[in-house]
Design brief:
By secondary structure, the protein is mainly alpha-helical. The chain has helices at about 10-15, 35-40, 45-70, 75-95, 100-110, 120-145, 155-185, 195-210. The two termini are about 25 Å apart.
């Protein structure tokens, strides 16, 4: 893995010296139509992304309101309370729909063992195993919140926070994997090299945002 960094120059030099990928044409009105929105809502992943958008929007409102330290009974304090309620309930709803999503991840783990490159094999295994561990721990925390399982040393929230550590680790490994692919593209003569490099950087950035 370390050998990938030899002779590639600094990462910032390569990013800013590379020509920008071609811009996509602006979205047509059809892409924003009610029919396409309805198609989005019929898919589980689409509904989850919508819920995530509003959950994190509410979380941002809670955080910004906290910085302002609103007085009890003020309009800002009321908005913060409503945003917190929406954030907590959307988080619970998303956690409910997360059940059984670990099965595809666990099923794909044996395929990681067939990867030839030992570094890629270890990174892929770490990412998938930590992601599956997060989901399983999240289920345990969820059942503790429902009072189905005893709290033990960790309450429901504490168990969920433990699972989030594995989630952050999984995304950190995912970012490392994408950066390794980005550096490996330095020796590639493919016509799509710039596009592939941009895709790697964009995916790595998404993983790092989830870590934060």
């Amino acid at each position: 893995f370390a050998s990938s960094f030899v002779g590639t120059g600094t990462l910032l030099d390569r990013v800013f010296s590379a020509p920008a990928p071609p811009l996509r044409p602006p979205c047509s009105m059809a892409a924003l139509s009610l029919d396409n929105f309805n198609v989005l809502c019929t898919k589980a992943e689409g509904r989850d992304k919508l819920a995530r958008f509003f959950q994190y929007s509410a979380r941002a409102i809670v955080g910004l309101s906290g910085l302002a330290a609103p007085k009890a009974g003020s309009a800002l304090s009321t908005v913060e309370g409503h945003a917190r309620t929406a954030m907590v309930n959307l988080a619970g709803a998303r956690r409910t729909h997360r059940w059984c999503k670990e099965f595809p991840v666990i099923k794909s783990i044996p395929k990681s063992l067939s990867i030839k490159d030992p570094v890629d094999r270890v990174l892929d295994l770490l990412q998938k195993v930590s992601l599956a561990t997060f989901m399983l721990i999240d289920h345990v925390g969820h059942m503790k919140q429902w009072k189905i399982l005893p709290g033990g040393k960790r309450a429901g929230a504490g168990t969920i926070q433990l699972g989030l550590k594995f989630f952050c680790f999984s995304n950190f490994i995912g970012a490392l994997t994408q950066m390794k692919k980005f550096l490996a593209l330095a020796s590639s003569s493919s016509e799509d090299r710039r596009r592939d490099e941009f895709t790697c950087l964009k995916t790595a950035f998404k993983h790092l945002l989830l870590v934060l």
